[in-house]
C-alpha cells in the first residue's frame, strides 16, 4: 500500500485554536484523503516555515495574536507569491473578504460554512497549484529537449524528435495525480508509453491494466470496484477490484473510447469524487491510484456525436499526449527494422539476417496502417521464411501488396547540361549555380549554402573572390 502523502506539496493550517486545527485536518483527511498537512498555532512562525520550502497552500485564520491574518497574507504574497492562500475565518464580513481577495487570497470561507464547501475549496486550490507546478515542469522538460531519465524509455525504439518531445511531456506529468489520456492509431505503441509513464512516476504500487472494450456496465463495475460476499447470485466470496489492486500505483484503462455511456458515468464519479463503492457495499473506498487511459478512437468526434460524455472527456484530457503514426516518423523505420530482426532471430534461434539496402526505402514509401505492430509482424514473417544470408524482400512486398519494380530506386535525374551545344566552364557553371541559389533563397547566404551543399563561409569566400575579380 502506498503511504505517500497527498498532495505532493505541504498544506499549512494556521489558527490559534488547537481544537479547530485538529478538526480541520481530520476533516480534510477523512473527506478528501488530504494527509500532507502541517499545523501551526503561532502566526509568527508561518514565514520562517514557508522560507524552508515545501509548502504550496496555506489555510489562514484572520484573528490571531501576534501577526494578524491580513498582515500574514500581505507578507506571504510579497515573499512567497507561488504559495496559494485560503482564508478560513470566524468573521463573516464582506469588506474583510474583499480586502483579503485584493491582497491575493484564493478564496474566503467562514468556519461555520458547511464542511463540503471548505473541502471543495481546498481541493480546487490544490488542483490549481498542481496545474501550476505541472506546467512549470512541462516547460522545463521541453526546454531541456528530452527526458531526464531516458532509461525509462529505453524499451521504445525511436530516433524521432516528436517522440522525444512526447517522452519529455510524459516525464513532466508523471507524478501528477490527474488522469493522463494517451491517443494514437492502433499499433503505435501506446502500451509501451504507459509502462514508461508508470516507471517515471515514482509510485511504488503496481501497474494494473484493464481492457474495457466489450465490457458491459455490470462487468465493468465488478472488474473495477470489486464486490462483497453475497453482492449478487454467485458472489460466494469477496473480491478486490482493479482500482484497489492498483493502490499506490497506476490503473491503466485501455480502449476507453469503447466504454458504454453507463460505465462512463461510473468512471466520471470515480475521478470526480476520488472514491467508489464495491458492489453490495455502502462503505466508500478512496481512489489511491493514478488513472491512465488510452484509445485509438477520435474522442473529440465521439464527444461531438454524443457517444462520449463531455464532462468525462475534458476530465480525462487534463494531460493528453498523442503518439504520431509510423508514417509520420519514417526515421524510426530502420532502427525498428534492425530491432525486430534481432528479436525475431533470437526467438527463432537463427542468426540475424542482413537485409538488402533497398528494403528501408521501400518500407519508408509504405503507408503502414498497422504502424509498428504491422512492421513487427512483417519482420517476424520474413525471418521465419529466411534460409540464406540476405533477407528476401518477397514477404515484405506481398504484405504491402507491391511489386519489386515499385520499390526500385528512382532513376537518377537527367544531366542538365546534356542539351547544351557548348558546355560552360567550371567557373561559369559555379557562378550560375551560386546566382540561382541566392535567387531561390532570397539573398540569404546561409540558406543558399545549404542548397549548394557547402558551408556558409565557403560561399562567402567564393562571393568575395568573384567580387574582387575585374569585370
User: How far is the first residue's CA from the last residue's CA?
Assistant: 85 Å
What is the number of independent domains?
Answer: 4
Our count of helices gives 19
CATH homologous superfamily grouping of the largest domain: P-loop containing nucleotide triphosphate hydrolases
What structural category arises from helix and sheet content?
A: alpha/beta
Q: Work out the strand percent.
A: 5-15%
CATH C-level class of the largest domain is Alpha Beta
The main sheet comes to:
5 strands, parallel
What is the strand and helix layout of this fold?
Blueprint: E1 10-14, H1 18-32, E2 37-40, H2 46-51, E3 55-60, H3 69-79, E4 84-89, H4 94-102, E5 107-110, H5 115-144, H6 161-173, E6 180-183, H7 190-199, E7 207-211, H8 217-225, E8 226-227, E9 239-240, H9 242-245, E10 250-254, H10 261-273, E11 275-277, E12 284-286, E13 290-295, H11 299-304, H12 310-316, E14 319-322, H13 333-347, H14 358-364, H15 371-385, H16 394-400, H17 426-440, H18 445-452, H19 456-468
Parallel strand pairs: 1-2, 1-3, 3-4, 4-5, 6-13, 6-14, 7-10, 10-13
Antiparallel strand pairs: 8-9, 11-12
Amino acid at each position: 500500500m502506498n503511504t505517500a502523502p497527498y498532495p505532493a506539496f505541504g498544506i499549512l493550517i494556521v489558527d490559534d485554536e488547537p481544537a479547530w486545527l485538529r478538526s480541520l485536518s481530520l476533516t480534510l483527511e477523512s473527506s478528501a484523503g488530504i494527509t500532507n498537512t502541517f499545523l501551526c498555532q503561532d502566526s509568527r512562525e508561518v514565514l520562517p516555515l514557508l522560507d524552508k520550502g515545501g509548502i504550496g497552500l496555506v489555510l489562514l485564520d484572520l484573528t490571531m495574536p501576534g501577526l494578524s491574518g491580513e498582515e500574514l497574507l500581505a507578507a506571504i504574497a510579497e515573499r512567497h507569491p507561488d504559495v496559494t492562500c485560503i482564508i478560513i475565518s470566524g468573521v463573516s464580513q464582506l469588506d474583510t473578504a474583499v480586502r483579503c481577495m485584493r491582497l491575493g487570497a484564493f478564496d474566503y470561507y467562514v468556519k461555520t460554512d458547511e464542511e463540503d464547501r471548505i473541502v471543495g475549496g481546498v481541493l480546487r486550490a490544490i488542483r490549481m497549484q498542481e496545474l501550476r507546478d505541472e506546467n512549470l515542469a512541462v516547460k522545463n522538460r521541453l526546454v531541456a529537449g528530452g527526458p531526464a531519465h531516458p532509461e525509462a524509455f529505453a524499451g521504445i525504439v525511436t530516433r524521432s524528435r516528436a517522440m522525444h518531445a512526447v517522452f519529455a511531456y510524459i516525464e513532466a506529468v508523471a507524478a501528477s495525480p490527474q488522469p493522463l489520456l494517451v491517443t494514437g492509431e492502433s499499433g503505435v505503441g501506446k502500451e509501451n508509453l504507459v509502462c514508461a509513464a508508470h516507471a517515471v512516476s515514482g509510485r511504488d504500487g503496481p501497474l494494473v491494466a484493464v481492457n474495457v472494450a466489450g465490457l458491459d456496465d455490470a462487468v465493468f463495475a465488478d472488474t473495477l470496484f470489486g464486490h462483497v460476499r453475497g453482492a449478487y447470485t454467485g458472489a460466494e466470496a469477496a473480491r478486490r477490484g482493479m482500482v484497489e489492486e492498483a493502490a499506490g500505483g497506476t490503473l491503466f484503462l485501455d480502449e476507453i473510447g469503447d466504454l458504454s455511456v453507463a460505465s462512463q458515468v461510473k468512471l466520471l464519479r470515480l475521478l470526480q469524487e476520488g472514491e467508489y463503492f464495491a458492489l453490495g457495499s455502502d462503505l466508500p473506498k478512496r481512489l489511491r491510484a493514478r488513472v491512465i487511459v488510452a484509445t485509438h478512437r477520435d474522442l473529440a468526434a465521439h464527444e461531438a456525436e454524443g457517444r462520449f460524455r463531455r464532462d468525462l472527456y475534458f476530465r480525462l484530457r487534463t494531460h493528453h499526449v498523442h503518439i504520431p503514426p509510423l508514417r509520420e516518423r519514417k526515421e524510426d523505420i530502420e532502427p525498428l527494422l534492425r530491432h525486430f530482426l534481432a528479436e525475431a532471430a533470437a526467438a527463432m534461434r537463427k542468426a540475424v539476417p542482413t537485409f538488402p539496402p533497398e528494403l528501408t526505402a521501400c518500407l519508408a514509401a509504405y503507408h503502414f496502417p498497422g504502424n509498428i505492430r504491422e512492421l513487427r509482424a512483417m519482420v517476424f514473417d520474413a525471418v521465419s521464411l529466411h534460409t540464406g544470408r540476405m533477407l528476401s524482400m518477397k514477404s515484405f512486398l506481398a504484405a504491402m501488396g507491391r511489386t519489386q519494380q515499385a520499390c526500385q530506386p528512382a532513376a537518377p535525374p537527367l544531366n542538365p547540361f546534356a542539351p547544351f551545344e557548348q558546355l560552360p566552364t567550371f567557373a561559369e557553371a559555379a557562378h550560375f549555380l551560386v546566382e540561382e541559389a541566392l535567387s531561390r533563397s532570397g539573398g540569404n547566404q546561409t540558406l543558399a549554402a545549404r542548397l549548394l551543399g557547402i558551408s556558409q563561409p565557403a560561399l562567402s569566400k567564393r562571393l568575395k573572390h568573384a567580387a574582387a575579380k575585374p569585370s
